[in-house]
Amino acid sequence: MNVRLERSQPSLLHAMTAHADMSRAIRITAMLFVTVLTIVAAQVSIPLPFTPVPFTLQPMVVLLGAAALGSRLGASAQVLYLAAGIAGLPVFAASPVLPQGIARLLGPTGGYLMSYPFAAFVAGYLAERRFDRRYLTSVVAMGAGLAIVFAFGISWIAWGAPHSGLSVALASGLYPFLPADVLKVFAAAAVLPAAWRFLR
Q: CA-based Rg of the chain, rounded to a whole angstrom?
């Protein structure tokens, strides 16, 4: 697979709203929509007995939203999500231990949450370089974003507040989630190429 990083191209959002001159109102509305989708995905949370990290649909929403919005808007949507959580709004996944608010970023899932703007930026950046036009390159873009989510999450569990160590972090923050998340990446990667084909 020969992949080149080309010059930035219009995101899917830009292409869909080309006739509306990509007004500020449309950009803000789309960004807010992805933020709300992230909040909704957090509520679809399945706690697992052997790890403090719940299973959620958030990574898929973060990556898909960023690929559709582009790097800056995608990252901004996740910054807004974190800001709402820090302000104490009930936007994070349910936790039997930690309350909503900034304390959640200091808990075991803090690394995953803080990774979202960075993962969104990378996925959006690659999408702007036409990685979202074909299935295989779309998998690469989504996979790169997912790798950032796991890198932040595992590092935080291993060396952040809990001081658990790498082996514990991998056992509780990577291995239980990797198979399902890889499947989600393969499924999500099909959405953007299909959307571009529909536009054409």
A: 17
CA–CA distances in Å: residue 125 to residues 131, 136, 169? 9, 16, 29
Say what the pTM is: 0.86
Class of 12-199 in CATH? mainly alpha
Rounded CA gap, 129 and 11, in Å?
Answer: 9
In whole angstroms, give the CA distance from residue 73 to residue 120.
Answer: 9
For the chain, the domains span: 12-199
Calculated CA dihedral for residues 56, 83, 149, 170, nearest 10 degrees: -70
47-93 residue pLDDT tens: 888 888 888 999 999 999 999 999 999 999 999 999 999 999 999 98
Copy the structure tokens of residue 19: 């006739």
Contact 110, 104 (CB under 8 A): yes
